[in-house]
Automatic annotation (TrEMBL), chains A, B, C, D, E:
The lineage of its organism: Bacteria, Pseudomonadati, Bacteroidota, Cytophagia, Cytophagales. It is found in: Cell membrane; Membrane. It comes from Hymenobacter sedentarius. It catalyses: Mg(2+)(in) = Mg(2+)(out). Mediates influx of magnesium ions. Alternates between open and closed states. Activated by low cytoplasmic Mg(2+) levels. Inactive when cytoplasmic Mg(2+) levels are high. This is Magnesium transport protein CorA. It comes from the Bacteria. Its main location: membrane. Belongs to the CorA metal ion transporter (MIT) (TC 1.A.35) family. Residues 1-15 have a biased composition (Basic and acidic residues). The gene is corA. The keyword Membrane applies. It is a multi-pass membrane protein. Coiled coil: none annotated. Keywords: Cell membrane, Ion transport, Magnesium, Membrane, Transmembrane, Transmembrane helix, Transport.
Length: 377, 377, 377, 377, 377
């Protein structure tokens, strides 16, 4: 089935190959995509957007020549070790941090440089069609006039933010550089909700299926799979919440008070996402209870049918067997044996036996009805 | 069934549409009601009450002209974005806070402005007929001579408080402005109890139904639904308790000691509500145990009937089958075969077989009685 | 059954009627008893005891005239709102505290007045015959030369303490006024043990009943009921422990070090009571496991009987049915059909069939014995 | 069965009789043994050991005359109230502490006197043959040149320590007085391991019994009993760990740093014992799962036998019943009814029916084999 | 089965023999291997590697003569008490720490000497073929120019680190002495991942087996065994995480800030390992649910077959029994009894009965099909 593959494989591939390596050794996974570089440079009045893929040197020149602008350097794909090392060198990143970026399975966290720059990791989630949470890592480095972001895929969930930056009327352009880092975090957080909504819809679907007495195949497997998703989602979001809480505790010279109010809002959102996840967990646990009780009920139903049929027919079978006995009315020598089954020789014998059996059945049916076994309780 | 719709839908609608939006962007949900504005202005000797719906400008004039009075500005309904933005601007509210007000699915919380004003969110609960907790948000902003409250519905649970303010003898009128914020919080807390009582009554009803061996249809569904309510109630009240605890930790210049004593009382009430919720959780868990054990007992009962019927009749059927065999007393050539079922030719054969079967049944009944299967244990 | 009525009802009655009331509004429940007032005045050499019911004014005079004595003012019954308000006024109690006293469902707690006086709430427990924990509230206010106690009932668990005070040789008389408050708390704590012991006895009784294979009616109900008691007891005692812990953290000018050593002892006792409660919870959970496993065993036993009977007789019934077939030895035209059941015409046919069936039964019995189904495992 | 008697009885006896007594009142339980007094006096070069039972005065004289030696005063048995009170008075013990000593059911704890002396309580465990944890209390008071220890029994687990003191080469004799208190605590801790090992052995025995498909009688009772032991053991050791943690937090003038390093070691041991207890809990919970699954498997097995037998013979019985019907080949008036069971008059009728039944059985056996019901899965 | 032997035995052997011994007494277990001594001496330009087994004196000489180099003294095997005591003496180790080294069952921990040297314990894990976690202890002492490591086995998981040191280009050689201690800790942490991966593979295998409806023998045993491994792994890694957290809290003069950044990275790794372990626990718990539900489904399936067979044939058997009754068409005296089973004398009697039975069977099959009992739901 492979539905645990994703996270274990990710971790294993990322780590097994480096057992015993020097910590901070950069490794690029084989399947990593060729990096593409995008730049957005803006201030209140200016906005320039350009792709610098394969033109990293020109990007550096641009950055040196325009210190007054705010820059979002957007690196997508890790598949070029030399470029990664050059970025690490040029932007003064720690090898361990760069290792975190490239390993691509890192809990959400924030780290502060001595010069007050920040390194943040967020996890972007997506809910795929086959009920799996797909999560990617977004790594951010902030600098005085840039935010440097890394991610593995070319596609991401940040386009709405790009659109906002492109707009001439965006307040985002007037805010300090660090606000961009917040905005990125916030977009990631916002994308948790569609994931949650998809999970919630699926849970509700299962609920309705059980309530409608339509039991899909492998129902328990599905319940457990969605449970796994919810558990995984919580494990993704808890560090996100902790990260934001840590940001809120940063000194004001690192994170200005005017930005903290936004993080406080983000913190509330993270808490709400966790609340919802807890609520889903409760629902799933109730679903499991329902499933198991339903299983028991089906067994009871089967047993009831068996019992009713048996209880009705077993006595009847006895009666008909009784009158199938071959006790002889005469002993073969002409002597009548009047005690041996005289009923068989009565004119009303057969109708009376039929009547008797009818009465027995009626009594049983009344008993079963009173027990509630005939109604579908 | 839809019984998880409420909270998930609320959150989804509120958030999905704003994925990628600038944080602090105000959105008014389509179904939001047209705002109505009410004012209560009072001090120890004065009391004026007036509706200012569609007359917001006049309200502002009044407020400017009567700084010496205490005002409760009571906004019900969010369905006018322009008015909401004007309120935000005129009362100096932060866009993120205004967003919290309008999103209408916010955990209870308190935030302090730099100028010591407070922003509080409470959740008002109601227990609807079809066993759902209906919760609405009450958002409060305090100022030196006003409390500005927002809620989505025209109807609320605050009428008892309004009656108290209207009374000439109310101590409330003599107390500081902030006391009104407390009084609002307290009324909301007080309304948790009828909700809890309704839940408690329902649990008791289910308990009694099980104990009386009357098993309503879909009992487990009902148990799980009420469990969901209790879980939800706890999730509503925990933040309320934390909010009050945070208020108690506010410095005295923000929240005077003389008011904190009231919040301490409110804290006790919140704790008691949580206690009760915990107690309900225990009861519901016991109910589930009872239900499942009862399910097992029913199965046992069915099995017992089956066993008793089978065990009585199967041997009897064997006996009657035995004497239904066609072993011949003569070999067709006139030779008597004396060993072949001579019982059939005995004068007392039939009565003795009947007697034998009677004895077998008696032995079995005694055995079952001793096992306790005939009594309804 | 109503066994959850006690606490829910108490809370509901106490709170519903006051939804929307001004906090601190005093309410006297209808069924509250008429207050009786008792005074004990003592110092090392003096001891006076008198009932002042309906003579509250004389009590005040006495107190004013004898400031050098220590006084225990013992109010039993709340049924006189005017008196309650006068007490509140004369002893400088806060309306919210008085409300706590009269609501009579308050968690154990301690509050400190600005002038270092204390307000303490304890919960006294009693274990009634029908397996319910009956708990009453003891509210204490301490002053420089008095302890003012409130309780709802005329009967209480404090008589042993009264006897100690009456004794001329009691060290209690020599200790400071506050020691009396401790002594009252301690007596309440001591009364937790008989309650626990009664619960423990009952659990043990149920255990023994299960082990002795005597299954009382409604066993699971009983288990769940006693579980409810234990859970309730824990909810009563946890706040008591927290209260004492808070007393231990009080500054020395409020609670002198020489008294704290006694509270440390009380703290140990509270912890031990909670320990015992936890232990009971474990026992009850084991009982439930035993019960459910026992239920499964009974089902197994029923199934085994059914299986044994069926397995023995079904093949036999087949055999006797076989020889009850009417295949004809001649075709009605005088031709012998020698293949049609020649056994029926053999001289030893019947005995051999009986023998065959005996052998089959023997083989089956051996098989069942080996399976261990005949022994009562 | 009485296996909960030990702790509840101990507590009840100890506490019930003192409900309402003055806290700190000394009580000696009736069954308490007559106290025996032992003294070990030592320093680096000296070692004297003597029993002072019934010669308490001489003991005091010795202590007064030899202030330069270290003394271990070892009181075993509490059955002499006068002596206990004298000890309390002479060594300056607090009545509440003395009460703790004599009650003999006290959680492990440490208390510090104003003059830096210590009062410690440890619980010594023993695992009796009938699977019960037997625990005794060891109470210690430290002084400048003595350790005063109390215990209820004459026999204890401290002999190995005594042997070490007696040895001339023991470093213990050179260490400060307080080290003896540590050594006593450590010996008690060391004795937890044999108890744990005995519990572990028993769990493993039960595990092996289940795995070997040998199911001892009352297996679940045994599992639950050993679970009770483990739970009890944890409740004993947790306070011990907390006690040591508290000792580690004592200021250096009360507990010198050079001794704390030993307590740090003891702390590790306590943690390990708790780790082991947690591990046993997991094992026992797995055992319960195994037991219940095993119970279900047995039921399945019984059902399978029933099903196989019934499914094979019920159709066969139908067939033989079919040909036992008495439809007449002629209508009694000489007319042949050719449609009425002509099979009965065919020469190969009987063998063909036998063959048919054989084929039916074969088909069923193949079906069952494919279902895996014939193999013992 | 013995799968709990490892840890309990290890602890018991290590501790039972020393019950009552002086704490800090060194004991060498009988089966301990003869120690081998290895030295790596290096700085940026130098690298010397030599085995000093049985030449401890020469090792000391080397260390004294080369204070400028960094040394890793690598002791493998404890089986020489004299050497262990000499090491303890020469390197100034505390007897209690040396005892921890030799006991070889110690939780991960860190201790700081007064002179800022460190004592660290790590647990190295390995996952053996028969599904057991094999764990060994790595004990480290750091000094100004050496790291002294102890382990019980000759083989370990540190070879990758040795290779790195041997490399001329290793940055490790340029870093401070303490970095080696970190590198050792990190290698141990890295080796947790293959263990986790092996456990994860095994869980997935079991999952797939259940989903493929192939049920291996003793499936539950296997599930519980792997659960035990995961629980054990968590108990190993939690202290490791706590150790690293404690290192991060060490003052900078003990652990320089430049090294803490590496430990922060290690902390993240430990957290991830624990995350994975939690995730496995969830998976295993889902597996158990699946197993038990599967067990119930199998029972349902068996019951269904039984019910279908019985329900089809029991009525049929009644019918054929009915017409096997011997009611006589004449009373033996020539009088016809027309009511006694006239069907038997009808020309179409037999075919009609066959047809009737066919219709009954059809009706039942349709009923079962509608119930879904014929399809394999």
């Amino acid at each position: 089935m492979g539905y645990t593959v994703t996270d274990r494989e990710a971790t294993r591939q990322a780590r097994e190959q480096q057992v015993g390596q020097r910590p901070g050794t950069l490794n690029v996974r084989e399947e990593a995509m060729k990096p593409r570089l995008f730049l957005m440079a803006y201030d209140e009045n200016t906005f320039i957007e350009e792709e610098y893929t394969d033109r990293y040197d020109e990007l550096l020149v641009w950055l040196r020549d325009h210190p007054e602008l705010k820059h979002w350097i957007d690196v997508r794909g890790y598949g070029d070790l030399a470029l990664m090392e050059q970025l690490m060198h040029d932007f003064g990143l720690h090898p361990l941090q760069m290792e975190d970026v490239l390993n691509d399975y890192q809990r959400a966290k924030v780290e502060v440089f001595d010069d007050h720059r920040l390194f943040m990791v967020s996890r972007m989630t997506d809910f795929t069609r086959n009920l799996e949470i797909d999560d990617d890592q977004l790594s951010l480095f902030t600098g005085p006039n840039y935010v440097l972001s890394f991610q593995d895929d070319y596609d991401d969930c940040l386009d709405s933010l790009r659109t906002r930056i492109r707009s001439n009327f965006s307040t985002l352009r007037r805010r300090p550089m660090l606000y961009l880092a917040y905005a990125l975090t916030d977009v990631v957080l916002d994308h948790y909700y569609p994931t949650m909504a998809a999970i919630g819809d699926y849970i509700e679907e299962l609920e309705e299926a059980i309530f409608a007495d339509k039991r899909p195949r492998r129902l328990l497997n599905r319940i457990l799979r969605i449970k796994k998703d919810v558990v995984r989602f919580r494990r993704l979001v808890y560090p996100e919440r902790d990260k934001i809480a840590e940001i809120l505790r940063l000194p004001d010279e690192v994170m200005p008070e005017e930005l903290k109010i936004f993080y406080r809002d983000a913190y509330d959102h993270a808490i709400q996402a966790l609340d919802l996840a807890e609520s889903y967990r409760d629902n799933i646990s109730s679903l499991t209870d329902l499933y198991l009780s339903d299983q028991g009920n089906r067994m009871n139903e089967v047993m009831k049918v068996l019992t009713i049929i048996s209880t009705i027919f077993i006595p009847l079978s006895f009666v008909v067997g009784l009158y199938g006995m071959n006790f002889q009315h005469d002993d073969g020598h002409g002597h009548v044996l009047p005690l041996n089954m005289p009923e068989l020789y009565k004119p009303w014998g057969y109708p009376m036996v039929l009547g008797l059996m009818f009465i027995v059945v009626m009594i049983q049916l009344v008993y079963f009805y009173r027990k509630g076994w005939l109604t579908n309780r």
